[in-house]
Structures are given as C-alpha cells and as structure tokens.
C-alpha cells in the first residue's frame, strides 16, 4: 500500500551545471555536508554549495551555488567520487587511476599525499573502520588486472597498502564493513572476512550496498532485494524490485531503488512497497549521510524524506494502524529516547481511537493501556459524563476526528450501546490503577452515570465501596433513572444520612418508585441499627414502629454494640415505647431474656405485659386456644425463672382470676408459701403432674434438704386428702397419686419418716419401687460417709506428720492458699504439706463438700 515517504526536489538545474553544452553528462556524485561534488563525462569535477530553504508553508527546497570546477586532464569520464572529510580530501577515480584532491581547491596535494594508484576498476570506503585512528580512511580497491581486493589506509600525507585478498573470480563491485568484504563477482555474490578468510557467496547481477553494521543489501534473482549479514544469513524478508534495477540506496527505514522508469520505495520494517515515483533517464542513485541523491544524465535531484511523524500521521489518517505502529517502532533508533517515548505514546493513543471508532474494542483497550491514555479523553466523547466541575480539556492537536459519541455512531443506537458497554468495562478496570490518578472524581462520576443509565448490577457495589463520585452531578442523574436507593447510598457516603433516610422512606411508603430492593424497610431498620447519630435514630424510629412494630423495634434490639458507638438508655427506650405495646413487649424480652439485664422494673414490666396479654386472650370470644397456650407458657416461664419481679404486685393482679390458678401457684412458690401453692395445684386444679413439677423447679437451685422438704409436704397433702376422702369414701385418686410420687422420686424422701406416716393397710408390693430406691440411696450415703471419714483421718495424720517435721510460720505478709488474703490473726488451719489457711476458709470448704452433704442425711440409714 502506498505512503508518501519522499518528495523529489530539484537540487542542481541543468543550466547551472553545463550551461549550453549539450553533450556533457553527469557520471557520478558525492555529497559531504553542504558540499556537493559532480563528476562529468568531460573529465571535470564541479563543486557546489547546497543551502536548504524552507518556505512559510514548510516546503523544503535547495539553493545551489557553484563554487569551483576543475579539469582533471585525463580526457575520460570521472567514474567515482568519495569524500574523506577527516582528511579534507576527495577521492577520485578516473580512467582507472585513483588519486586524491583537496576538497576545497580541487588541487592535487604535493608529496606522498598526491600518490596515484593505477589499474583500479572501482573502490569503496569502510564506514565501520577497524582502526581507531580518526585521521585515517580505510578503503577497498578492485584491480582491473588481478583477481584481488586491496585494502589501503589513506593518511593525510601517505597512502599505504595493508592487505591483499585473492578472489575466485574477477570482482566487479565491492562494499566494505569492518573486516567484511561484500563482493559482486562475475557470476556470484560473496561475503568475505579478509581477516579470517571465511566467505559466503550467492550468484546475481551486482548491486552491493552497505545498510548498517555488518549488514548489506544485494540484488538477488527474481527481482528481489535481499538483506544479508556478515554470516551470509538474511534476517529480513526480501523486497520485490523489478528485474531492471540499476541502483539502490538506504534512508532508514526505507530502501530506495532506481530502474529505467521509476523510483520505488520499500520499507525495511515490513518489506512492503510504500511509494512509486516516475523518473526517466535515471543514471545514478546514492545516499550520503542521510541524503538520497539521484541524477539523470542532465540534472541532479534529491529525495527529501518527509518527517517520520508526518508519514505516521498520514498512515493513521488512512486508518492503517498496524503500518503506522510498525513505522513508529522502527524509527526508535533515529529519535532521541525522550522524544520517541512521547511520540510513541501519542501514536498508540491515536491508534486506539481509530480502532475504537471501528468497534475493535479489545485492540483499542490494549493501545490505550500501552499509550497511557488520559482516560478523560475517552470519557469526553460521551456527552454529559464528565462532571461539570471537571477542568479537563482535550489534547491539542486532537487524538481523533470525533466530536462526540453521536458523531461517531451516526445515529446507530446499537453502536452507541456497544460503545457504552466498552466504556463501563474499561473504566471498571482502570479506576483502581495508576491510570485514574488525578482524575478519580471524573472516572467514578462517569462510571456511576453509565451504571444508572444501563441499569447495571455494579451500581450498588460502586456506592457501597470507596468512591469519588461528585454528589452535585450524580443526584439529578440518579433521580432521572429512578435510582433512589442508590442515591441514598451516595448521600450516606457523603455523610448526609438524614437525606438518605428521607429518600428511602419515601420509596418505602410508595411516594417514589424504585424496585432495586424489595426489602427496603428491613434495610432501613438495619441502617438505623448501625447509625451512630442517636438524634437521627429517635427521629425515624417512630415511622418504623408505625409501619411495623415487630420489625421496627429491631432498631433497638439489633443495634450493634461497639466501642465509640453511642447507645440509647434502656430506660429511655422503654419510656419511648410505651405507646407501642407490641414493640415494648419485644424490647423488654430483649433486655430480660437476651441481654439478661438484672433490673427489677424491667422484669416486673415484662411479667405484667405477659399477664395482660393472657388476660386479653381470655376475654376474647371465642378464645383462641393455640394463642392462649403459647401466651401462658411464656408467662409461666417468666414467673418461674425470674427472681427479680415484684411477686406481690403481680399476685395482686392475678389473685381473683380462676383461669390462672397454675400461675398463682408459681407466685405462692416465689413467696415460699408452698402449702398454698400445693393446695391450689392438688385441690383446685387436681393437676398432680404439675404439683410434682412444682417441687422440682422450686428446689432446682437449693440443697437436697430443701427438695426433700417440698416432696414431704406434697406427700402430706396427698395423705391428708386421702384420709379425709377415705372417711368420706372417695380417697382412691389421692392414694394413687401418693404411691406414684413415692415410686418415681423414692431417693428424695426420708424413708424412715415416710414409713411412719404411711397407712398400715398399704402393702409392701405396692411400695416395692420406692423401697428399692430408698435402700440403694441409704447404702450409697453410708459408703460415701465412710470414704469421707477415711479421707479426713488420712488428711489429719498427714498434717500431724508435717507439723512435727517443721514449724509453720504465719505473718501478715503471707497469704491464705484458698482465698489469697493475708493473715490478720494467729489462728490458722494447716492443709497437708504444711500450707496454712484461714479457719473460716476450711469451714466453708467442709460445709460445701459432697461428703458433708451426705453426712447430714445420715438419718436415712435403715
């Protein structure tokens, strides 16, 4: 594909060179800096001074000034000219004679510096010399009579032969780089190391051109321009020339070739044809220090390379992205590092926008990443996404040709949507990277607007995490798309919790429509639970309680307890909830049952609420037995398990209610009026299982003596009732209840005492389970007592032994082993090992020991 890499600009017009002499032709040219030397067929050397002139429009032209011409006197065309600027000499080949002339005067120097070498067909200068002398020129010469290449060193005052290399055929063209000779022989090319003798060869009509360090350009069969390094290996693909190529030159990164009708320009980077210029009667093509000069037989022209940046921009304008990038990267060696980095980044950014416009999003993203694109350049394509407070202005000159996304899409809505999805993906990737540094507000605001517009699932994630969204810009955008829940999150992030709650409440009440969360009410409750502003909590709790007391009270019951997080006073909450009885009940349950706050007012209040709930259910017609049973269970559990409520107060509210006899019995038990409690259970309710359960729970935290007392009391109630019933002829029910009580809990009773009060008419068979349990319990107690007595004696013996062995010291600085308090009196008790303890500590230990408890029940022995 074509690219305009060069412009053909005249340098020396025909009239200036030869005037009206029609038969004079140009044979060779040489350029050194601003000095141009032309050799003609009439044995003249013409010396011109070239000045570059740039017009106001940036167009380059050349002004040639003729300084001198010199006739060499050999009556043959000047074959070759080469400048040796370090020596201020011009090397001339004419009529097979090689000699030097002064670059300024064109005169032959005197002495050894004017020596001539005869029989020369062609020569070349080593541009990568092996000697380190800056005032010495290395040269390779081909002789017309011998199959040799001669290596000469040319100094200011002498010419010295240093090497002669034999070749298998007569060479006709030569190029030299370091120790490497690239030769065109009669039938083949050859690369030869004249220092080691190693060689590589290839047959072809000769064109030999040095293009870089240890690399040459050759004309190969089939019209190919081949690249070969010093090892004879081609590391680049060949370029396609015509079969009639007569000359080649290199102006990196291009190879310029001249044939009969055209100048062709190929890229060394991708080997593609980039430009073709018509040029007839071409005769000479050479490159000199970056200038490409060619001549017809009558005039001299210079191929002026266009600036690489302009070439790259032309490629980008044609949307040839890959070629532009290849050219940019290939030009790296010719551009200073810092300038190249700036240029490379810009080209990558431009390439990214071209591929973005072609919807090649993966490639565009990669170029944006490598080019370190300011992400706001991309965001600015999307109308209204950048916040109004943004100070961003687009790069100048612009990186793309688009005014905005609408201009790019030309009304294609599918294209618009694809571009928006790409931007969402791209911003999501870069917002947490260095790319977003310095413009996080712009990035997050744009991302939020896109999320809201596209109804994207990541909107809430963005607002729930750290973000830099600009509030003033985002509010109208979220309102436009009815994202009120998200707007509340944004208010919360900016510390405006009151505004967030007001908005959410309007959504929960149906004043605003937003289906983001179906559980918005529960979310508001959770939000209030974690809110550190108590004024805000009190302000919106009333709304929550009116909407749903059961859920609303969770503002207090599920409130997060943590350091530096203020908590409302439970007393204040209870007072506040007085008008919301259902919520008050739940809150008191939270205080008493979950947090286990030991405060009489809370316990009494909860018990009264339970009682009122039961009484309310009892007053309904018809009575809901299921709800009543659950309510009574909760009341009974509260009355049994709590020891803090005011028993007399609750009893006063329940005393005249015949439906709550079981609750009355529990309250009598709390007052230690067990006879009344058992009377209610046995005589009024006739609930024997509840009577047994009463004895068990009333003595749960008490010792065995207390439990035994309660069971004996219950047994007495049964027997007294039975005796009265027997005289009246109806005591069988109580008798069976007494037998069941003894047989189920025989180990609790004092067996001797029981046997003394039982009616004589009862058979032993009837009491067999009871007697078996009583005997086993008695034997266990006896044996446990004997073990305890033996251990006590052993302990006493050990103590006596230790006391005799050494004295026991007691002081007010020494602490008791059991309570760790110091001794204030000399009376102590010694444990085994001679450890002194307080006397009261030992007494407490013995009182609480299991052996002591069993000993106190020794009267159970039968």
TrEMBL record:
Residues 23-292 form the CNH domain. It holds the Pfam family zf-Vps39_C. InterPro entries: Clathrin_H-chain/VPS_repeat (IPR000547), CNH_dom (IPR001180), Vam6/VPS39/TRAP1 (IPR032914), VPS39/TGF_beta_rcpt-assoc_1 (IPR019452), VPS39/TGFA1_Znf (IPR019453). GO terms for biological process: autophagy; endosomal vesicle fusion; intracellular protein transport. CHCR repeats lie at residues 560-723. GO terms for cellular component: cytoplasm; membrane. This is CNH domain-containing protein. It comes from Periophthalmus magnuspinnatus.
